[in-house]
């Protein structure tokens, strides 16, 4: 085992097939510490790569190790790896504190140490005040944060996060990205999948671009988003309590090219040429307290258009 392998997540010609269906093919990567984002549409292979790194899937061929640990050694691997999946399901009746502590106890922690690690994880995601409430009463954003707290509770060296920003309001999104940057500064590996390309650009040290199970590019993509903005406006669906009022506020920004109500009148589609300016404006609106924003999500059709642009640029 080399020093380099102990500091990287290494894919050596890794392929994964589901019967005759391709998951990923001939992946060669050496992922160092910091934030690495996996970018691609549904079916590109992002979740397959993540499940291979956690040992939940075994490669059909090739070799894979995480900080020098082969992924077929689960007991060693899970001491080093934290995983936050995109699936929003929990054991019934548990509080946030019980959810995290039970995970720690199954992982071999007990007593005072488990209590201390639970509290520390809740503090890092700002959920201490809600720790003793049942998760069933949490908002979507709170459920996302308690899953994140569980993934970091055992103080892993690698965090694998599948769409971790989904369902978070603008303020909590910014706080979560700041937490990711802090963890990266502490020397952790963070592997993050995201559909929100301007956030990928903002928080990532590197990007792995996937298409149909193949890695088509990796490295920095700074500047690509800025080149796309005029010809490929980003479209976002905002769920809120007053979409008509929000539309009026959004149209004050020259970079907003379209704002239309969702059919259920509980959401607003917004197209913007300047994602950074759009999120700043949205943060200002939320801070005024007049409009309550429940969630923000990119719209798949525009993601596909942006992704097509990125593939064409390679």
Quick synopsis:
The protein is α/β, with parallel strands linked by helices and 314 residues long. The protein has helices at 3-6, 46-54, 74-80, 96-106, 111-124, 140-152, 170-185, 197-203, 224-228, 243-250, 275-287, 300-313; strands at residues 9-18, 21-31, 34-39, 61-66, 69-70, 81-84, 158-162, 189-193, 206-211, 214-219, 234-240, 256-261, 267-272, 293-298.
What labels would you give this structure?
314 residues, alpha/beta, Rossmann fold, Alpha-Beta Plaits, 2 domains, six-stranded mixed β-sheet
Structural write-up:
The protein is α/β, with parallel strands linked by helices. The protein folds into 2 domains: 3-219, P-loop containing nucleotide triphosphate hydrolases (Rossmann fold), CATH 3.40.50.300; 226-312, Alpha-Beta Plaits (2-Layer Sandwich), CATH 3.30.70. It is built from 12 helices and 14 strands. A 6-stranded mixed sheet has the order 6-7-8-3-9-10, with helices on both faces. A 4-stranded antiparallel sheet has the order 2-1-4-5, with helices on one face. A 4-stranded antiparallel sheet has the order 12-13-11-14, sandwiched between helices. A hairpin with a 5-residue loop joins β12 (256-261) and β13. α4 packs across α5 (111-124). The longest helix is centred in the middle third of the chain and has 16 residues, at 170-185. The radius of gyration is 20 Å and the shape is globular. The two termini are 34 Å apart.
